[in-house]
Write a structure and sequence with these properties.
Length: 605
């Protein structure tokens, strides 16, 4: 215990000072005939030209072996780190008395650092030292001592194991917790293969890239191990209660040694042993988010700040695109924040928001910013306001919700060139405003059976059936002449849909002509393909025409006609050509489309 306390004091002192130091670790007493370690530790520096000490009263068995370790921590937003190089010598006590360990030295940062000489007391065989360090039967294998890692020795769970470590014992829902899966070993590893990975049910996972390598030395439960981080990730729990990360299974090959003596000395022959290792499972308590939750809370947990801006800042004009940006910055589950709802004026044509995420997973949580861009096009001139809003998040450190007020934005829109976009008109055609005011409702206390209209409802179905039969017989007679029926139908559709556009052409109104042409074409495609106007696009028109049985040339002609009309509407100063020619082309395209018979769709079981 005194030795552990002594080492801990040295390590804490070195970390606190963050200065280069060169110290020695060794037992105070050793029993004659036993082996013991002398470790020279260089903290926060890179060493070279290590000179081992002169030793009397003990025989060098192995060394020096060199190990490197590095550690870092993140506490209250501040990071700290430390590194060390360890030079380990293994000796055997040969005679009772005093063992004198001379000074060792190493070059670091251009300076040669030297340890102080010290003395180890070697007790007679059979004595009990105050600090037991020699190897005894059944005891854990000393780290980096190949002389005791013989091939006939069983590898115990204290010599090699995989451990799941959680950075916090309890967190709130959506609060970050770091999970580290680490290998601890006293043996060299020749092969490591996961067979069953731990599962993270109930968590969202953000992987932190790691390169597994045995490049660190740590003390765990009083024993020194080589360690390697196998997996490291940030977990965001999605539900409250106890969540468990299940254990994983691994196939590991460790290196042991067959040692034998020869005329050249002791020779060690490496031997591999295959083992199956199972990690522990880890349970963490997840606290539910407090109730009631603010109306503007959408799941953000951490510490955040919100700003907004407009691009351009001024000079808005009708039919010119602008962008309203919603910028959320801070630390927490920032990657999973939902886009807030922004209420734009009804006179704006608004498009779906686009999200740009710029985060990093340094430390124990994600930090950075998310930029949510709302593109819009004012359709009318005047003064408009984007109303004020709120953004709420839960601060797990304070244990309460915080609400940020988003100020309103005032826009003055000037008259620009162009007309309301087709997207805006279609959007406003879908749903009409709810009728308000006096609806003319009144109470009625009469009996409908005594009124003549009651009996009329019995006669109307009979009359309707008779009329339908007559109409059906007439249709059968007309449809017998297929060519005449197709020609009549195509001519009727073309004349009805293009009649209004022909009127604009006769008056020389190019803007009105192309606007009406677009209405006619989009409306015709909607009726022809049975697609709501609000869902029409050139891509799905092309796909539906192909499925209908329209050939490639006619499909391209249809899409090209729509493109020509759209270009002429939004850039009338660049549009050229005779409007009557466009009318003839439209009539021809509709006539050809009407002449194609729908392709039968085959279904497979």
């Amino acid at each position: 215990m005194k030795r552990i306390i002594y080492i801990a004091i040295l390590l804490l002192t070195a970390v606190a000072a963050q200065a280069t130091s060169f110290t020695v670790e060794a037992p105070r007493q050793v029993v004659e005939g036993n082996k013991f370690n002398v470790t020279f530790v260089l903290k926060n520096g890179e060493g070279s030209n290590f000179t081992p000490p002169e030793v009397s009263g003990a025989k060098l068995i192995y060394g020096p072996s060199v190990s490197h370790s590095y550690s870092s921590s993140w506490v209250n937003g501040k990071s700290s780190s430390s590194s060390s190089e360890e030079y380990t010598m293994i000796y055997k006590a040969t005679a009772t008395g005093k063992c004198h360990i001379g000074a060792a030295s190493v070059v670091s940062g251009g300076n040669r650092l030297t340890t102080k000489p010290f003395t180890i007391e070697i007790l007679p065989s059979g004595s009990q030292p105050n600090h037991q360090t020699q190897t005894t039967p059944g005891a854990p294998t000393p780290y980096s001592d190949p002389m005791t890692q013989s091939a006939d020795k069983a590898v115990s769970g204290k010599d090699l194991f995989v451990r799941i470590e959680m950075s916090k014992p309890r967190v709130y829902e959506q609060q970050a917790v770091v999970c580290t899966i680490k290998l601890y070993t006293k043996y060299q590893i020749s092969q490591f293969m996961p067979t069953i990975q731990p599962s993270f049910d109930g968590f969202l996972i953000e992987e932190i890239p790691v390169q597994p390598s045995l490049n660190k030395v740590e003390t765990f439960n009083g024993e020194r191990y080589m360690t390697a981080i196998l997996k490291k990730c940030i977990l965001y729990p999605q539900q409250s209660g106890k969540l468990t990360i299940t254990s994983g299974n691994y196939d590991v090959s460790v290196v042991q040694f067959d040692t034998f003596k020869s005329i050249f000395g002791t020779i060690s022959n490496p031997v591999e042993k295959d083992l199956k290792v199972q990690s522990n499972s880890a349970t963490i308590n997840i606290l539910p988010l407090p109730e009631p939750k603010p109306a503007s809370f959408t799941g953000a947990v951490g510490k955040f700040n919100v700003t907004t801006d407009l691009q351009p800042a001024t000079g808005f004009k009708t039919y010119s695109a602008a962008t309203y940006r919603y910028i959320i910055s801070g630390t927490g589950n920032i990657k999973y924040i939902k886009a807030p709802e922004v209420k734009f004026p009804e006179q704006f044509d608004v498009y779906d928001p686009k999200t740009d995420t710029q985060v990093n997973d340094g430390g124990g949580d994600m930090s950075g910013k998310v930029i949510i861009s709302y593109s819009f096009i004012p359709q009318y001139a005047g003064d408009f306001d984007i109303p004020a809003g709120e953004f709420s998040y839960f601060d797990p450190d304070a244990g309460k919700y915080e609400t940020i007020t988003i100020p309103a934005r005032h826009l003055t829109v000037a008259k620009g060139e162009g007309q309301p976009s087709n997207h805006y008109r279609m959007k406003n055609m879908d749903i009409r405003p709810i009728k308000s005011g006096d609806l003319g409702l009144k109470k009625s206390h009469g009996y409908i059976v005594g009124h003549w209209s009651y009996w009329l409802w019995f006669l109307l179905p009979l009359i309707a059936v008779a009329a339908l039969l007559l109409y059906y017989r007439k249709q059968l007679k007309e449809r017998a002449d297929v060519r005449r029926m197709r020609s009549k139908r195509a001519s009727k559709v073309a004349q009805r849909r293009l009649k209004a556009a022909r009127g604009f052409a006769s008056r020389g109104d190019r803007n009105g002509f192309y606007a009406e042409m677009l209405n006619a074409l989009w409306g015709y495609m909607s009726d022809k393909l049975s697609i709501p106007v609000s869902e029409l696009s050139k891509d799905n028109i092309n796909a539906e025409l192909e499925q209908y049985g329209i050939d490639e040339q006619l499909r391209q002609a249809s899409i090209s006609l729509i493109d020509k009309c759209e270009f002429a509407q939004y850039a009338p100063e660049l549009a050229q050509g005779d409007m009557n020619a466009v009318l003839d082309e439209a009539a021809s395209v509709i006539d050809q489309l009407e002449s194609v018979k729908r392709k039968k769709t085959s279904y497979s079981a």
